[in-house]
Amino acid sequence: xxxxxxxxxxxxxxxxxxxxxxxxxxxxxxxxxxxxxxxxxxxxxxxxxxxxxxxxxxxxxxxxxxxxxxxxxxxxxxxxxxxxxxxxxxxxxxxxxxxxxxxxxxxxxxxxxxxxxxxxxxxxxxxxxxxxxxxxxxxxxxxxxxxxxxxxxxxxxxxxxxxxxxxxxxxxxxxxxxxxxxxxxxxxxxxxxxxxxxxxxxxxxxxxxxxxxxxxxxxxxxxxxxxxxxxxxxxxxxxxxxxxxxxxxxxxxxxxxxxxxxxxxx
Length: 266
Fold this sequence. Notes:
Blueprint: E1 4-9, H1 17-30, E2 35-39, H2 47-50, H3 61-65, H4 71-74, E3 76-77, E4 84-87, H5 100-111, E5 116-120, H6 127-133, E6 138-143, H7 147-162, E7 169-175, H8 177-182, H9 188-195, E8 199-204, H10 208-215, H11 226-238, H12 253-262
Parallel strand pairs: 1-5, 1-6, 2-4, 2-5, 6-7, 7-8
Antiparallel strand pairs: 3-4
Helix pairs in contact: 1-11, 5-6
């Protein structure tokens, strides 16, 4: 079949979608798989900064689509992980410059080159979202455990079903167990009850994420990072491994209750 296309999306901005894309790409490439990140957020690219590749851009996604660059010319190779590449978004064009058909054609060409194509979708439900999900074999929906983010994620779940790309798999990002205990944040169970889609990752709040993003060194590269470990666990689940959900705090039953029920989701 060739490479697998994985689209990372969200209902609203600011939930960590681009950070998730970069970290999963790093985690998969660290296992020896060949990975290309494709930034579909035309006009608002950020994936290159999070990956530390912003100074090496010559060609972008629109250059490929419009025939000014060949696929390999636009693929920026990461210096730290030889199996990791980026195709950046165009910064001076709008989302209408690329169509869903263009994305399918491009990803089909990439399938012959790599093991994974990770598409960083724009937030929301407009043209950019349709472009990003069109070639997807699997969609990851990123949300924070807060009411507005989960409500917007629920809308994405419905759209994916309408596009016959569902049900999608869920990553809950920036979970704070101490806030959940106090009743000030939705629990993992709350989010799953609302969205009713398979869980594939829970990423704890980690101040190091901001630092790593600013440095262009995703947290999955840091063996000491709890968030980085969570992203590495998601990557293993994507590859078919049965990885339990660890406890994020001293209450060891907090995620162990979920393990038996949801590790099969991958």
